[in-house]
Amino acid sequence: MDRRRRTTRQVKAGSLAIGGDAPVSIQSMTSVPIERTEETIEQINRLSERGAELVRVALRSVEAAECLRKIVPAVTVPICADVHFDYRIAIAAVDAGAAKVRINPGNIGDQKGVREVIRAARDRGAPIRIGVNSGSVDRRKFPVVTPEALVASAMEHVRILEENDFADIVVSIKSSEIGQTIAANELFSSERDYPVHIGLTEAGYGVSCVVQSAVAIGHLLLEGIGDTIRVSMTGDPAEEIPVARKILEAAGARAAWVRIVACPTCGRTDPSLDILTLAREVDEAVTARFEGLMREKGRTLHVAVMGCEVNGPGEAKDADAGLAGIRDGKMLLFARGEKVRVVEQRDAVRALIQEIEKIEGA
Ligand code: SF4
Fold first, then answer.
1. How far is the CA of 314 from the centre of ligand 1 (A)?
2. Superfamily the domain 258-360 falls into
3. Do 152 and 138 contact (CB within 8 A), yes or no?
4. Ligand 1 centre from 324 Cα, in Å?
5. Of ligand 1's atoms, which has the minimum distance to the CA of residue 325?
6. What does the pLDDT read at residue 1?
7. Quick check: 166 and 197 in contact, CB under 8 A?
């Protein structure tokens, strides 16, 4: 699991370690203006309940930092303040409790201002994230956006921090184009060992966003690149989190404590069986009952939900526990590779849970 991960420096955003041997973390960003403070708090808490481990909030004025001051004690995840163009907002945000600040040092003011931000971040132990996007690259300097141009743009900002002896840096280089995002992150990671935040910018929504993000983020993770991720999805940011989690699990970057294998069903499935509904119910019930236990045990529980007795028993036997459809609404129940008994579909979830309780000593 995760053996090929590139070694990066570790930084701490509040309680969250990013880089080094820390698990690849999941980030999101609020979509509510920070001035709607109660709504922002509610959204952050919902994101965190779903699994976000750091939430970015945009601040567009020094006054917005007063909202941040109310938000930080009301949430449990560290907050990254997203600031552009005005170094005073970044200082106010760090002063208000931001655990991390996202700025591009080259566009937030003169050198004196940048030095003041660095001093504030250093004093409070807040790392600085540099974020370069294909859409925001300075076209006067980089008329054509290429991976090299994206990296050169990021390096301009990195060097400003390095010249000020500041190394608590996280870098994100994103494009809406998959190949460009991958190439730019590969190039940057060959030049510096700062932790990288990866994702695809403007990935859109729905299936298209899921697939594109999975390809870009998954590819980089499998190459060992990526210390923290965000799936940028148009719409409710809470929808991003399960997608991010699944990408991390699929790439082997985070353990899946419960893994449900379900067949697609086919003409061999008895029509009286509803495998899709059953798979969802099993996923929900088994995850709720055993995820915490498996996390404690540090291993994955494999459960199979299969449609027929042609291919079903083999898969169900290979899992820790499983179900394979037969006929007339009945299913075979398996545990530890052995057939246990025949159960009705309506009793299948309860019976499966009981068998897992026995085998896991729960
Ligand atoms: S397990 Fe059986 S029902 Fe499911 S896809 Fe395979 S052959 Fe079809």
1. 11
2. Sulfite Reductase Hemoprotein, domain 1 (3.30.413.10)
3. no
4. 9
5. 3
6. 45
7. no
21 alpha-carbon distance from chain centroid: 16
Predicted TM-score (pTM) of this structure = 0.87
Q: Residue with the nearest Cα to atom 7 of ligand 1?
A: 311
Nearest ligand 1 atom to alpha carbon 264: 5
The atom of ligand 1 lying closest to the CA of 312 is: 1
Look up residue 325 and give its amino acid: G
Ligand 1 residue neighbourhood (C-beta within 6 Å): 263-266, 268-269, 306-308, 310-312
User: How high is the pLDDT of residue 214?
Assistant: 97
pLDDT at 136 over 80: no
CA distances (Å), 285 to each of 274, 301, 320, 356, in order?
17, 13, 15, 12
Ligand 1 atom closest to Cα of residue 269? 3
pLDDT for res 202? 81
C-alpha closest to that of 25 among 53, 55, 56, 57: 53
The band of 2, judged by pLDDT with boundaries at 50, 70 and 90, is: very low
Q: Span 3-7, mean pLDDT?
A: 79
Domain 11-250 is of which CATH architecture? Answer: Alpha-Beta Barrel (3.20)
